[in-house]
Design a protein that fits this description.
6 copies of one chain form a homohexamer. The first copy, chain A, contains 4 helices and 5 strands; from the N terminus they run βαβαβααββ. With about 140 residues, chain A is α+β, with helices and mostly antiparallel strands. Chain A is elongated.
Amino acid sequence: MVYLTRVEHFNAAHQLFNPRWSKQKNETVFGKCANENWHGHNYELYVTIKGEPDPDTGFVLDVKKLSEIIKEHILEKVDHLNLNEDVDFMKGKMCSTENLAIAIWEQLEQFLPAAVQLHVVKLYETPSIYVEYFGR
Amino acid sequence: MVYLTRVEHFNAAHQLFNPRWSKQKNETVFGKCANENWHGHNYELYVTIKGEPDPDTGFVLDVKKLSEIIKEHILEKVDHLNLNEDVDFMKGKMCSTENLAIAIWEQLEQFLPAAVQLHVVKLYETPSIYVEYFGR
Amino acid sequence: MVYLTRVEHFNAAHQLFNPRWSKQKNETVFGKCANENWHGHNYELYVTIKGEPDPDTGFVLDVKKLSEIIKEHILEKVDHLNLNEDVDFMKGKMCSTENLAIAIWEQLEQFLPAAVQLHVVKLYETPSIYVEYFGR
Amino acid sequence: MVYLTRVEHFNAAHQLFNPRWSKQKNETVFGKCANENWHGHNYELYVTIKGEPDPDTGFVLDVKKLSEIIKEHILEKVDHLNLNEDVDFMKGKMCSTENLAIAIWEQLEQFLPAAVQLHVVKLYETPSIYVEYFGR
Amino acid sequence: MVYLTRVEHFNAAHQLFNPRWSKQKNETVFGKCANENWHGHNYELYVTIKGEPDPDTGFVLDVKKLSEIIKEHILEKVDHLNLNEDVDFMKGKMCSTENLAIAIWEQLEQFLPAAVQLHVVKLYETPSIYVEYFGR
Amino acid sequence: MVYLTRVEHFNAAHQLFNPRWSKQKNETVFGKCANENWHGHNYELYVTIKGEPDPDTGFVLDVKKLSEIIKEHILEKVDHLNLNEDVDFMKGKMCSTENLAIAIWEQLEQFLPAAVQLHVVKLYETPSIYVEYFGR
């Protein structure tokens, strides 16, 4: 079993705001992250899959294919967009990095070839903060 | 003459949109950067000053002092905010990285001690794109 | 279960020196790291916790809270200090990166909220050397 | 149990080309990676071992010793060379990053001291692509 | 005047070999870099242009346009190729990073819009070695 | 004219302490940097030289030669040492990054071949603080 990781990037606006709470409680809990005019990040996305290398290619999966799957099913839906407003798979969810990583896992899992398994989605919000989700 | 650089970070939302143009022309020119719901970045800001080291301290300027000046006059005004909507010194300007670097220079220049000169403001929008402004 | 990591930095002096050995044996085993006048590093500390995201916030733990815990219980005790001389939780221990990572784990573990678990302490001594400790 | 990682670098030429396939099929499958005149990379190699810190040194293993083992048994055989043509342990194998990581594991495993175990070989082909091999 | 930099990457094989010298002299002078079976690098290319920001866009030049010019005139000709064998603008030249940076400058200069000037080509051969060329 | 840069690293202990001042004034001015038991850093040193590429090699200077000069005249004297106590060329100077960069310039300048000129010494104290010295 070998693990293969592809790193991709996207830029997006977001906001941490719980609609069941008052504006004041949101500001108390989320501070500047609750700014009603949004803020944003350069997210760095690491997608790791695992599998046996194919004897003919030496590849777990052609990394260009993995990159295309990530671009089609994730980057097209989040890059240069507003995570709270524009992204169908984040609708109705708190837009934390934790929830975004889970949602990216759930999206990607459906589109990977049967020969490989998704191992971990790692998502940097800033160079000092990242989350990892290994599935349930 | 020695050059001293301090690196700081901020996260912000923005949009490239020229109000004198139609929505369609904005989309043609700015593509995804014109998204009406905003997108955002982790900006990385390099501020370089120059001067003679003080014989008593060996410092061109105490780098903690430089950091405080940047925090007070720049980061407080842009971090976790919307560059188009929330930042007084960007009002009425196209919100490009070029214009943001010029505006940061103009802000900082006023608040530096007389013994040093601002040399360059370097601003990364993404790890692959940066601008530098050396003043006029 | 989601894993959340916060990266922090500190600068410190240290020395590798076993007091049960002669000065010569220390120099043979530890080379330049045994320098009696100390040397030092910019340590980079990655603290990873795990837990379920809170439905109200989307957070495993507010990363600002995690950062404050690390600052109060670790950085305040090691930053800009001498690891051998100034740090109570390293007293009487060989001051290797391995032992420092274990000691940081033991410190942090006591102060994390009950809802999360400490997963790993990862500590870079230089950009080419790091250790990880997952607890016992 | 503590995990210790050493990072090393090497530069090499390689080519993805399956000799059982036509030139055309190789180009279809491997694209530019099949270029008959080779291309190359700055590989970044992370070797992680695990063990108990020695009470006398605080070390899982002296990291200088780990570096020497990697240099003698891996870097000497791959650095500034052609992975397909010049490296005995890659002979007859598809020269993918997956297979190179497996081969590096098999080389290193033989030469590590008995007190430690090899945990993972992580190999970056580019800053956006890496593989990990944890043994079988 | 504002300076705008775009960072791009390419992978290539190369060799340092002076055909007017004996094989032995090449090995003496260039060491492992003279390997007849080639070696290779992940080159990192920084292209900096300068100009006045356009009042309508805030751009010195649309960075996507700059990226396209670099891709069409440089990356298409060097990426995943052999710098000595496959690249017309390096024919008959010693394939050092210095000469490659000069050649990239000479290529790019012809294709930039009149409103901007090429300022510097910066080329990393490894993370520890880079050259800069500002034109003659 | 082409500019060639070599990046090297060293680890050292140091202290900011002006012997003409009281202990209290040192603590007021230098804060934690005045710790009497020292602290330390992983310094990153960029040395840039300039010259014309040699027609036979394509090199401004063989970068291995540049690296050897830096190692012999700088790293041997500062790496894993105490900048205040152990380094002859820092004796009697305030041990700031500014003064260290100037001293490194003065050391290196004497030992470079006549065909090249030293252009700049750039010294990172931490990833967020660096100084540059271009000579007088």
